[in-house]
Fold this sequence. Notes:
Chain A is mostly helical. Chain A has a single domain (10-73), classed as F1F0 ATP synthase subunit C (F1FO ATP Synthase). Helix content of chain A is 79%, strand content 0%. Chain B has one domain. Chains A and B meet through α3 of A and α7 and α8 of B.
Amino acid sequence: MTPMELTGSLGIVGYGLGAIGPGIGVGLIFASVIQGTARQPEARGAMMGTAWIGFAVTEALAIIGIALAFVFGGL
Amino acid sequence: MSAFLSGLVPLETETEGFEAPGVHSFDVPPLFESVPWFDKYMLQAIISVILILAFWLIMARKNAMVPSKGQYIGETAYFFVRNTIARDMIGHDFRRYLPLLIALFSFVLVNNIFGVFPLSLLPTPSHVGWPYGLAIMVWVIYNGVGIATHGPFGYLRHATLPSGVPAFMWPLIIPLEFVSNIIVRPITLSLRLFANMFAGHLLVLVFVLGGEYLLLHSESIINKTAGVVALIFSMAIFGLEIFVQSLQAFIFTVLTAQYISSAAAEEH
Lengths: 75, 268
C-alpha cells in the first residue's frame, strides 16, 4: 500500500473550487445593490430586479458545478 | 462511562444501511410496461400543458371591465410577463414574441412547481432532456429572428463583431464571440435550469431521507434529535425550493427575451 494515498471523489473537490467564483460574484452583486440603495433609496425596486437576474446568471455556474459533480463523480 | 461516550460516537459507524441519494434517485420506471417512454416526467408535462391551456383559455374568455378575483390573477400574470419581461427587454415590437414568452414562462413555472407539489414531488426539468428541448427551441428561434432581420451573413457579422473593433483584433474577437453567442448560450440556458432543479431536488432528498434514516433507523438519542431537526429543516428547504423554482422560470424567460432582443437589434 502506498503511503499518503488519498481516496475520494475528485468531482466534489472540483465543485468546491468552482464555487469560489460565483460566491465572490454574488457577493459583489448584492454589495452594489446595498450601496446603491444607501445612496438612492427610491431606486430600490429597479435595482432589486436587476440584482435577481444577475444573481441567477452568476449562481448558474456554481449550480452546474454541483450537478456535474454528482453526474461525473458518482455518489 | 463508555455507555455515555457511545452515544456521542460520530455517524460513520451507524450509516452502513443508509443509501445516499444520488443520480440514481432520478430514475423513474415507466408507468406502463408496454410503453417505455411514458414515465412520470411525461405525465407531468402533459398535465402541465392541459393546466396551462385551461388557465389561459379561461383568462382569455371572461373580460369584465371591473375584474373579479380570478380575472385579476390572470391579468397580473399576463401583465407581469408583458411589462417586466417583454416590453422592457425587447422594445417596441414585442407583441410578436409575447405568446412565446408567456408559454415558456407558464410551462417552466408549472413544471418547476411540480417539484414541491404534494402529489408529484418531482420537478420535470430535473430530467435533462426537458431543458435541452426548451433551449434548442429558444436557440432556433433567436437565430431565426436574427437571420430574418439581418440576413444570414449579416446576422453572423452582427453577432460576432461588435461595432468599433479595430481590424487587428478580429481573429481574436470573432471566434470568441461566435462560441459565446451561438454555441455556449443554449448550453448554459439549459444547464442552468437543469442543474438548479437537480441540485434543489437532491437537497430536499438529502434532508428528508437523511432525517428519516436518523430518526427511525439509528439508536442513539443524539442521532434521533438530529433526525427530527433535519426533517423540520426540510420544510425550510421546500420554501427555498419554491423561491428558486420561480426565479429560474423567470430567468429562463428573461434570458430568452434578451437573446431575441439582441439578435433583432438594429445597428445604431
